[in-house]
Amino acid sequence: MVDPRAYEAMGQPITGFRDPYFLSVMAEVQSGLREVFGTTNRKTFPIPSSGSGGMEAAVGNFVRAGSKFAVFTAGHFADRIAIMGRRQRAQVVCCTKERGEVFTQEEASTFIEREKPDVVAFVQAETSTGAYQSGRAITAAAHKAGALVIADCVTSLGAMPVELDSVGIDIAYSCSQKGLSCPAGLSPISISPLAWEWLDKRQDDPATWYLDLRLLAKYFEEPHVYHHTPSPPLYYAMHQGLAVIEEEGLRARWERHRTVGEKLVFQLEKLGFEPLVKDSNERIWHLTVVLPPADLDEAKLRDRLMSKYGIEIAGGLGKLAGKILRIGTMGPLATEEQAQFLLDAIAASI
Amino acid sequence: MVDPRAYEAMGQPITGFRDPYFLSVMAEVQSGLREVFGTTNRKTFPIPSSGSGGMEAAVGNFVRAGSKFAVFTAGHFADRIAIMGRRQRAQVVCCTKERGEVFTQEEASTFIEREKPDVVAFVQAETSTGAYQSGRAITAAAHKAGALVIADCVTSLGAMPVELDSVGIDIAYSCSQKGLSCPAGLSPISISPLAWEWLDKRQDDPATWYLDLRLLAKYFEEPHVYHHTPSPPLYYAMHQGLAVIEEEGLRARWERHRTVGEKLVFQLEKLGFEPLVKDSNERIWHLTVVLPPADLDEAKLRDRLMSKYGIEIAGGLGKLAGKILRIGTMGPLATEEQAQFLLDAIAASI
Fold first, then answer.
1. What was the pLDDT predicted at B240?
2. ipTM of the prediction
3. Distance (Å) from the alpha carbon of B113 to chain A's nearest alpha carbon
4. Which of A350, A349, A301 is nearest to A323 (CA)?
5. A202 has which bridge partners?
6. Which of A114, A258, B230, B293 pairs as cysteine with B272 (C-beta 3.0–4.6 A)?
7. Which residues from chain A sit within 8 angstroms of residue B84, using beta carbons?
8. Does domain B250-349 have CATH number 3.30.450.20?
9. Where in chain A is the domain with CATH 3.90.1150.10?
């Protein structure tokens, strides 16, 4: 759900991309993004794409042909990272676990010590399974091996801890339509000084020009060299989305998502649903993924919720299609009232 | 300038990307785009990027490593196509003329017969110079040589003749914020059955996953397989932008742009400005590019117009920086009254 203030912001007049007002909005968006990413990275800006474009920017700029790319995969979006790595003609090695699981420090270091990759990637909040992994189990081993770490923060940003600098993530990307409660269309990205130094020294150009981070950065910094035409309504919306987060306070917002998510799981278990992620510390707070009771047709339940209550919940992707329900309670939807409305609707529909 | 109806449309509630209402908007956007492109190409849809992303999709999908790519260059954006071709590790050959010029049938066929390229690209309306080239001088020679033809229609679409099928263009891309009078953020693309057949048979995957047209097409057609999350407000805006064009009539809209553009050039010449493109048949109607009188500082004039009248006009790009003025009169701005307001402001500022 898009925050009402983000909707409203899109009505503001569209200016040129070097208009002083637009540049001031852009600067505030960048500083707001640093806050939610938990970083001081100067290279933090939204790129003109969906979250998958952010993924491609991260992989396309930092994973070179012939380099070794280690991906921790236990879900659909981690698999997508590996696919993108192969398209860069890198040597992709995957450390794979069952859908819904996360990686322990021992698993991560054993794998990294054995493979000695140039770049490591993991998904902080795997939208396809509901599993959350801060990344602390992975970054130390990766850095010890001299590898840069890419984190997919598509679903974590703005809703639960991302903390790039404290976790030790080098390159992170996200989207606008989940934890930031804005319309889709922009992908915030953040790059550490260490990763930027590597990129700055890269001799060859990445295959992508559109998502070339060195070119993009020149637009977001003085003297704002023209690269692409940005979409002002999406910036205006993100500007307001970030202001809403700042006003609530990032930690208060996390806490709200946690409280509502835990209540939802507790009540759904009573109704016979079972969380896919067993350990409650490894669950995404604002995306509850459950297996329905054995006799329940998940597609029919989703149809009923949509047609009778206007509630849209998602089904499984890929291997988990037809097996799970994915319930988002993000931003304005993460309240006791909304959770109760949803629970009542589910109770009446099963 | 964004059409008021396109602004208003962005306030509509955001739905999921497989919501029946959203799918109906998407279908109507696709059929409206076929109209403005002048094509029956089934593969016509907006991709989630700016116009430069459309350029990258065209080049990245159709220009393979090692293939021969011929680019007709006489401006900044044609140069960009060549840059993208090199990033695909293609053998790029350029037929280059002075900025503001277009290519004759003889020049095109001599070049193509000599180079025997796999793919040919040209810019229909070169935003950096104001030159318009329908492409008729290029397509016949290209097809005779068995090459596919890519056309950059970023500035022509919705404002002057594009006519893909009649001209014989195989792959065309555009943007949302120029002739369609919508906010930036979507790039309409259209692919002929012949080009699609080639793509369908392509054995290797392009380096780009985000702009992979085979994956994108699966989302825009049944059964609407998930690829990326589209940005509903941008679709809503384009839906209205295309409806506005349909109501006015495409040919009436072209005529309006032509009339205003010709008036502007005529009056600017009286004020001592000189059009960069000498032949009036080779000028973009809605983007007037002029050299200022010898004693006039173009940057100061632009500053004065902006600060005193709120009129934004663009300067030159690359080699033409500091030498020209680029004046857009597109969509709601292409009226006698707006042109007169602009001319009065210029007359009072020089």
1. 97
2. 0.96
3. 29
4. A301
5. none
6. B293
7. 209
8. no
9. 250-349
